[in-house]
Amino acid sequence: MENKAVSLLSRLISIPTVNPPGEKYQEFVDFVERYFRSLGLDTEVVEVPRAEVAKYCPECADYPRLILLARLGEPKLHFNGHYDVVPPGPLESWKVTRPFEPAYREGRLYGRGAVDMKGGLTSIMVAVEKAAAAGLKNFEVSFVPDEETGGETGAGYLARSGKVRAPWVVIAEGSGEDNIWIGHRGLVWFLVEVYGRQAHGSTPWLGLNAFEGAVHIAYRLQEYIRAVSTRVSRYEFDDPRGASPTATMGGEVRGSVKTNVVPGYFAFSVDRRVIPEEDVEQVKREFIEFVESVAREIPHKVEVKVTNVSEAALVEPGHPLVETLSSAVEAVVGRRPRRTVCIGGLDARFFIKAGIPTVTYGPGPIGLAHAPDEYVEVRQVINVAEAYYNLIKKVNG
Ligand SMILES: [Zn+2]
């Protein structure tokens, strides 16, 4: 099985499905569609309407967004994964191999997308092949684009389309072979905009310094961050520091012109991460009210824009999907997997919002996504495939 997994994964990595803008999607989907057809599955390719793509990424609309569906029988289980990968970054930082020339070294397969998440796609393909050979059926698979650019034109579109027929979804994103992500945090992004009056740097008394206003608000916002970070989720997280709300200020700033100009406008971003117990509408209100109250302490006009919202999503750790997957995993890795909440975001929210219980479980290690010299452990790819195969057997039992 090891040779098969290595050659299949190598083939997937060698198709550079870089997003943005979304290259080689057709070539990738053609290859995978042929693979599933050869195993006797029915396949369907859905193109996301270009107008829909243009809403989220105008420069992407010239590249087709393709969703591949494959089915056998009446689906009781749905496996999902995204096939787009982030750009490789500077080539000099890739030491082991070039990003799209996969290399196998001591149990690891290196290349862009190895762990995020063509390793997970390979686990699905290997499990499906084994299940089909054993005469098992009643499952479906979707491979989607655009997770790396927000997911709306991939898993989001699929979940809203009503084309998922199975009652449960498993996403093969790399959680690690002994860890099930039962959910993930959400986020709200803000842009705090401070308006002053521009003037010459030699006559600051003629202006109103927007940067100084922004500094006042940013300084006071540390109180807000301290206050919300005392909340602690009751669920287990990969890292306990992620079990509380967090906020990152100043990831993006806008507005200054030049040393000898009093800035008339200055804006900074706040990336507020949301735990499953929080409601994004409440988070928005609370943040905006706080900024409005401290803005009264300065003469500037201040506005808060919400630039991105993504809800946290979760299934309870005792849900039958989690229990069933957990025992399928335990039979392979020899211990009960952890049931944690992912600190970042996942496509799971789209399916959960559509009313379909969804968990995320796939080969790791975690922490290498988007990095140079990205790799996946081939042993994990194979163990996860075995766990999926066990799960197909269980839902058919
Ligand atoms: Zn991913």
Layout: helices, strands, pairs:
Layout (H helix, E strand, L loop, with lengths): L1 H12 L11 H14 L3 E6 L2 H7 L9 E7 L5 E5 L20 E3 L2 E3 L3 H20 L5 E6 L7 H10 L7 E3 L7 E6 L1 E10 L3 E2 L9 H19 L17 E9 L6 E2 L2 E10 L5 H16 L5 E10 L2 E2 L5 H14 L4 E5 L5 H6 L4 E3 L14 E3 H19 L1
Parallel strand pairs: 3-6, 3-7, 7-17, 8-16
Antiparallel strand pairs: 1-2, 2-6, 4-5, 5-18, 8-15, 9-13, 9-14, 10-12, 11-13
Helix pairs in contact: 1-4, 4-10, 6-7, 8-10
The site of zinc ion has 5 residues, from helix 4.
Give structural notes:
The protein has 10 helices and 18 strands. It has 397 residues and is an alpha+beta fold. The protein folds into 2 domains: 2-184 and 312-395, Aminopeptidase (3-Layer(aba) Sandwich); 186-310, Alpha-Beta Plaits (2-Layer Sandwich). Helices cover 35% and strands 24% of the residues. The protein binds zinc ion.
